[in-house]
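Quick review question:
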């Protein structure tokens, strides 16, 4: 009987230990499951983003998330849906427009690899003493934001923007980056790209823009919904003058 009791107790202990081990395995298995999900999500994001960047190296982006967002904003305001956008190949865009974009937004565009750290440092310094935020984004960063991302200023979005900036600088040429930039950037209420802007403001093709007209369009890049290329304020006129001055100073733009 004593022997039977001994084996019975051991059997109960082994069953209890088995239940505990199963419970522990379930408990410790949850972090592993979460890790696997995050790992899968990361690999999926990396693969799709890489494919997207390579795809847009050869195919012109049909729309951006900003265009869709602005479209819904217009609808909610009682306006018609509007995306005025006409693609213009790089070689068919006036050199004046390309020089104006570089002079206004990113004078080291052909030299950097996606980030102008001097401009970022200056922007941080100015923002620390001002309520009005000043950006230090390069043209490459703006393309990454405009084509692949949503509007916002969160740390997460800026981090993903930096990631896409590295990708497009790796897989696209500077010529392609500038071509996409000038065709996708917002240039007015429902107006996107230099061709649509040129037609709307000056009733001509982007291939025929003069130096003054190109500078007038470039000056409204930072705030195209508030500013006008054909009805500039005194501040914008001064900015236009500075852009034209910088256009003269720029060396040859060897794309």
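Suggested answer, residue by residue:
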């Amino acid at each position: 009987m004593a022997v039977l009791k001994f084996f019975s107790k051991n059997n109960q202990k082994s069953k209890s230990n088995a239940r505990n081990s199963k419970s522990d395995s379930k408990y410790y298995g949850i972090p592993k499951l979460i890790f696997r999900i995050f790992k899968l999500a990361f690999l999926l994001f990396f693969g799709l983003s890489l494919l997207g960047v390579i795809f847009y190296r050869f195919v012109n982006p049909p729309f951006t998330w900003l265009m869709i967002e602005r479209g819904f904003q217009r609808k909610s305001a009682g306006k018609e849906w509007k995306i005025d956008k006409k693609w213009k190949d790089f070689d068919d865009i006036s050199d004046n427009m390309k020089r104006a974009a570089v002079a206004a937004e990113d004078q080291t565009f052909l030299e950097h690899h996606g980030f102008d750290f001097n401009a970022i440092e200056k922007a941080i310094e100015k923002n620390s003493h001002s309520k009005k935020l000043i950006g230090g984004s390069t043209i490459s960063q703006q393309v990454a934001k405009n084509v692949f991302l949503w509007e916002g200023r969160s740390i997460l979005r800026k981090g993903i923007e930096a990631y896409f900036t590295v990708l497009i600088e790796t897989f696209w040429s500077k010529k392609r980056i500038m071509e996409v930039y000038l065709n996708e950037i917002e240039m007015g209420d429902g107006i996107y790209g230099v061709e649509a802007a040129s037609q709307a403001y000056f009733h001509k093709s982007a291939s025929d823009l003069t130096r003054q007209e190109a500078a007038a369009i470039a000056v409204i890049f930072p705030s195209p919904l508030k500013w006008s290329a054909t009805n500039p304020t005194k501040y914008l006129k001064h900015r236009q003058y500075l852009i034209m001055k910088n256009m003269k100073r720029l060396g040859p733009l060897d794309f």
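Why it works: The two ends are 95 Å apart (CA to CA). The chain has one domain: 32-249.
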